[in-house]
Amino acid sequence: MKIASIETFLADQIAIVRVRTDDGAEGIGQTSPYRVGITVHVLHDMVAPHFLGQDPWDLEALVERCVRKEYKFPSSFLYRALCGVDTALWDLLGKVTGQPVYKLLGGGVRESVPMYASSMSRAITPEAEAERLLRLREEQGFRCAKIRIGDVMASDRDAAPGRTEKIIPHIRQAMGDDFDINADANSGFTVSRAIRVGRILEDNGYFHFEEPCPYPELESSAQVAAALDIPVAGGEQDNSLVQFRRMIAMRAVDIVQPDIGYLGGVARARRVARMAEDAGIPCTPHCANQSMLQLFTLHVAASMPACHQYHEWSIEDVPWTNGVYEPMLRVVDGAVALPATPGWGVEILPEFLRTTERQVSTL
Question: What domains can you pick out in the chain, each with its CATH number?
């Protein structure tokens, strides 16, 4: 069995990948969303050549060979493209063996994965945020949520004057003491401001404090983590395994958050999960929209012992993630159950494929 073709299907902010072998097996995956036109070009030009003609059972070795051979180009786009091929191959191997992907990753550590309702908005008022979180708790049983504080890479500027100090206690008061709440600063604070905000979070019983300082500045995050009792989370932006080892070793974070799409796929993401397990800290993969990345993250979380906390479930309506595949995942009583069907357990809708820009690399 050899990899005979790698196809991409591009539409809006999403690119589906289909891999076929010379004996007719196939699997579907997805690149990381956003800037997908560039990503698809990189996939066919720099990633596909390292996989075509190869045995798909050598998946992890092929992933590392691609990274090694392209060592002069350790860019985000290389890993975003690599994710598409990696995830399609995991699906192919699952279908060939008749097993869901999490079984290939070591088996199910848990039967379902608890989710937190993840807000992506800083434009929303504290009152409106509380209202929709209360509604979602009632409708889907969420026991945890995440709000946005500060502003993205903002050097202590807030999205609106005083919003951070207002929304933190307001959401706690609205949700009550028996509900867990995370807060995400998206690299928004200096060390001193992050520590002050962190103490407000602690006073209000928050669950974790995500990316308090600019993500490349591990030393800053480590200072914040050392000063606070609330766990500091981070890692979503990083695509270097060496950086993750450094991050964990220096205790820059208390919770590590690899993003499967940004890191290059499942094979590399589970290596980070094992690093976390060895270090005795949780791994909570980042997953910011309802594309196929949710599926990939679910399977990794189901199979990795370190992935035992709440996982991210975006609550935003993103039109381009609709009508791509079925069945869609659903949150029931605050969790998503594991699929029993082979591979990722979904099929790409023909209607979606007909509207896309197709490109194929072959032997």
Answer: 3-98+345-362 (3.30.390.10), 103-337 (3.20.20.120)
